[in-house]
Specification:
Blueprint lengths: L8 H8 L7 E6 L7 E7 L2 E7 L9 H13 L7 E2 L8 E3 L2 E7 L11 H17 L13 H14 L1 H4 L7 H8 L8 E4 L8 E4 L2 E5 L6 E4 H12 L10 H14 L4 H28 L12 H13 L6
Antiparallel strand pairs: 1-2, 2-3, 3-6, 4-6, 5-6, 7-10, 8-9
Helix pairs in contact: 3-7, 3-8, 4-6, 4-9, 6-9, 7-8, 7-9, 9-10
């Protein structure tokens, strides 16, 4: 989440008037994240999240993204539903950009997740995969390993080394990850970006999975690996927390056991998942305007995590 486009009170008020949610009371920009503009909206009828789709979003994908939210919410998953406007539309156009109003869910994103929270997110991720089985739409993963390699190649031309001199060294590893075949593994609708800041919790209970705008149809093991890479490392020291890493896997398998092929490939998929964030963060670092209300994220954090996965491999997923 972030704010790239600034909307005034009159524009926001006119927009909210198209929804049966009451009159606009307040709106506050949300600075976290890197892809879309977001506001916390309060009306006389309640609280909502307003999203304007800015980057990496193809309008043809919005029925998938927003439909998946509604599908999972209806299945009892802790996922916010889309608020449809007075015409029944899930999104509207404003100044040639799409906007959607999303249900606000209670909870706080954990800044230092513990094993009980990691166990709960593993369970919730498995429940989401099962609940998505009968969702009718599909979407290709546009952030797959081959796409990540292409991203890094482009970043190399755009000044990758200016971020850190070690980043170009990851290109060959990204090329290797691009050769992994995940198509034979079990597939589902996957979140593909389930960082702690995309999860809302009350104590150790998951109250919300949010920001589904990298969601796609893909290998379940990739979603597990992304979540493992996002939750199992200290955000400050970047050291590996084996208790959290193991808890994610135990929580997941409490609901859905992994297949033998999934478990065998998880170490390599985890390295690819780390490189996915090296690539996307490098691209965002180079592309983000200096005046945007956005905090750039350091791609070297995931270079470090790649090295840990590379060093310990299967021992981290035993």
């Amino acid at each position: 989440m972030a704010v790239y486009t600034h909307l005034g009170a009159e524009e926001l008020g006119e927009l909210i008037a198209h929804y049966d949610v009451g009159a606009l009371v307040s709106a506050k920009g949300i600075a976290e994240g890197v892809s879309n503009s977001n506001w916390l909206i309060e009306t006389t009828g309640g609280r909502y999240i307003l999203t304007m789709y800015e980057r990496r979003i193809d309008l043809s994908d919005l029925p998938y993204f927003l439909g998946l939210l509604d599908h999972l919410s209806a299945k009892g998953c802790p996922v916010p539903r889309t608020i449809h406007d007075s015409d029944g539309a899930a999104f509207r156009m404003l100044d040639r950009k799409a906007v959607a109003l999303i249900e606000f869910l209670p909870g706080v994103s954990p800044t230092k997740p513990g094993p009980s929270q990691a166990f709960a997110i593993g369970q919730t991720l498995a429940q989401m995969h099962i609940a998505s089985a009968d969702f009718q739409l599909q979407r290709r993963n546009t952030m797959g390993f081959a796409d990540n390699f292409a991203q890094l190649k482009k970043c190399e031309m755009d000044g990758l080394a200016s971020i850190h001199s070690d980043l170009p060294l990851m290109l060959e590893h990204a090329r290797e990850a691009a050769g992994l075949d995940l198509d034979h593994l079990p597939q589902a609708q996957i979140h593909a970006d389930l960082f702690p800041d995309n999860v809302l919790m009350l104590d150790s209970r998951v109250t919300g999975l949010i920001d589904f705008y990298f969601a796609c149809t893909g290998a379940i093991a990739l979603d597990i690996a992304v979540t493992h890479a996002a939750w199992s490392f200290d955000a400050v020291t970047n050291s590996y927390d084996a208790d959290c890493g193991n808890a994610i896997l135990r929580g997941y398998e409490d609901v859905r056991p992994l297949t033998k092929p999934e478990r065998a490939l998880l170490p390599d998929i985890a390295k690819g998942a780390a490189l996915r964030f090296v690539a996307s963060r490098a691209e965002d670092w180079l592309d983000t305007p200096d005046d945007a209300l956005v905090t750039r994220k350091d791609p070297m954090q995931f270079v470090s995590r790649w090295h840990i996965y590379n060093k310990y491999g299967a021992d981290m997923f035993a």
